[in-house]
Amino acid sequence: MPRYLSMVRIEESAIPEGGPSPELMQRMGALLEEITKAGAMLDTAGLTPTSDGVRVSRRDGKTTVTDGPFTETKEVIGGYALLQAKDKEEAVYWAQRFVDVHEDEMPVTLEVRQIAE
Q1: What is the pLDDT of residue 68?
Q2: Which of 27, 46, 68, 74 could cross-link to 79 by cystine, CB 3.0-4.6 Å?
């Protein structure tokens, strides 16, 4: 069965000061439990802020290391989910359910890509 990586793209500046609301976390918990019970969830987690991150790049024969935050980036990867689904349509179904639990004040985009086997 194909596996899919869903990358959660967020705007860090749109995250409320105290983090997501308890209501969002409750809806998210229920959805993640549903996806797990359906046998589609292999792994999922949120990521720490870009201020804790590091970028390692190579260009023109030179490797550079840059500490976060990365001010030139408006949208960042805020988390991921590794799914096993019968096809892309099922993976997209779960992605749509995921974005629908979010509040309007916290824009979120999921990029869903099949893992090359």
Answers
A1: 82
A2: 46
Question: How far is residue 33's CA from residue 40's CA, in Å, rounded to a whole number?
Answer: 10
Residues in the chain, overall count: 117
Nearest in space to 106 (alpha carbons), one of 45, 26, 15? 15
Using only C-alpha atoms, the chain has a radius of gyration, in whole angstroms, of 16
Pull the structure tokens for residue 76.
């960042």
Place of tokens 């096809």: 87
- Tell which residue, 92, 75, 99, 109, has the closest CA to residue 40: 92
Question: Is the separation of the CB atoms in 96 and 85 below 8 Å?
Answer: no
